[in-house]
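seq:
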Amino acid sequence: MAAITFPVPSTTTSRFAVAAESIPDDPAALLRRAADCPYHAHIAGRLGSPQLQVTREDLGSLRWDPGHIKAAQPEDRPAARAFNDAGRFAVVTAYSPITDQPRGVQVARAAAYAIARATGGVTADLVTGHVLTPSPGERTRFVLADQWLGDVLPPFRANGRCTAAEPAFDPEGVNGCACVRLRTRGLRRFGLPELQITDVACPHDVAALNVLRTTARRLLTDHWSWLATGPATRTRTIPDTLDLTQGDFNDFWGSTRRVHLTQPRPFQVHLSPLTSRLITAGPPADFDGTVNDWLWGDTLPLGMYDLLKAPADPHLPTAA
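struct:
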């Protein structure tokens, strides 16, 4: 079995922005008054340090383009348009040690949510490039499915740009196109390379997305276990083949109401490094066929073919 080696940074940066009609000159003051937030103690202890910086920025002084922020879901499009057209922002930046994750990014996003509630604003994740669905607050337990990955489907099939046949009705549809390329945008803030899967036919887009999600969750679980050992080196070596299980799929969603897949046995994903910061996921090295044959065949559990959203446990106002 071959291996993949990649650098692990000592710190990572996460940035969130809140667009609102009115942003006070000192938006950090809003956080000092947000005592109802379960992350209040963490916010108060970090505010003003590199781990939690809050600034007011106007359109003319920005080093990033609000127009590049998109909606991850159709229902978020009005919020995305409001963000794109805004002229005032509160920007939350967290320069966090890699060993402080995921708490570091959770505290930063909790601060952004608190500012949005206080100003009636729209929150965006500047790492994923997406507006965030309005939330009562940051969940105290980390759940990767909570908009941390930028994991969305492209609109090819939905807007009619691709008319590849459905494989269930026409076998030619299994490899009928290669429109879909999916890439995570968010693993880097945890010190991992991003993941992608390419050359996927439109009928297999959901399966490909769930393979990417499950792989990301497994890599993150293993990464935090590795960091907990206190490694002296700033490079990490992992096997290029992962055996994924139902547990990895369930852990992505973070629900105690388990999503039961039909096959309890593991399935394999082969990883190939494109750069030090990007890894491609695909079928096992000994698989005889294309990535679409693999996604359409009986290798994957059936639950991966149609599950876009899973029932999540509610956000509970418990202490962080």
